[in-house]
Amino acid sequence: MKKPLIGLTPAHDTDNNDIKMRPTYLRALKAAGAIPVVMPLEADEDELKQLADELDGFLFTGGPDVHPFLFGEETQMHCGNVSEARDGMELGLLPFILEKRKPVLGICRGIQVLNIAMGGTIWQDIFSMTKPEFPIAHTQPFAYHMPSHTVLLTQGTLLHEIAGMDTLRVNSMHHQAVKDLGEGLIASAYSPDHLIEALEMPGYPFFVGVQWHPEYLWENSGEAFRLFKRFVESC
Ligand SMILES: [Mn+2]
């Protein structure tokens, strides 16, 4: 049987104008039954359209911040580095993916890109902007394969069905988060400090974003592996 080809958006190292890919994304997709394909950042509109046509699914990976102009805001003090090339490629590609109704999974930066592409906004810096009374460590102080906080999954969502439980233990390596949801999206998980940690698009074949990093959890967590598995199956 032919395996689905899943395109991954690479990270852009703007210091050296290099592209990078965390191998555990590739391993997780391979273990779930797909052939991962790293996509280029330098692609014109016709090439993006062809990628959307020919690949079977898309993983928007983690990485640095999205330029605040792209969600209608000024750059705030604690916003991090951005890549115009990556922002442009990812936001240019998504409309073609939606047109073809191909499955898409967003991880960390990926959930934020998916939300911004649908007209949503994000917290540019959680800690300085939300000032919770008992801050949750969204940049965890220990290794990535260990979960650090819980999320409450929303009943009736695809993610709740995939996880098969109400509360999930997740890892956390983000200083930004989804703020206002984009058009057609619902929140499928919240952290204990009320941040949106996952979203999805009801009625779409597979459109899921998670703020945590299942690519560091799938080897030890059935729930994290089932997310990749279900994604690959929809492709
Ligand atoms: Mn978190």
UniProtKB/TrEMBL annotation:
InterPro entries: Class_I_gatase-like (IPR029062), Peptidase_C26 (IPR011697), PuuD-like (IPR044668). GO terms for cellular component: cytosol. One of its GO terms (molecular function) is hydrolase activity, acting on carbon-nitrogen (but not peptide) bonds, in linear amides. CDD domains: GATase1_2 (cd01745). Pfam families: Peptidase_C26. Keywords: Hydrolase. It comes from the Bacteria. This is Amidotransferase.
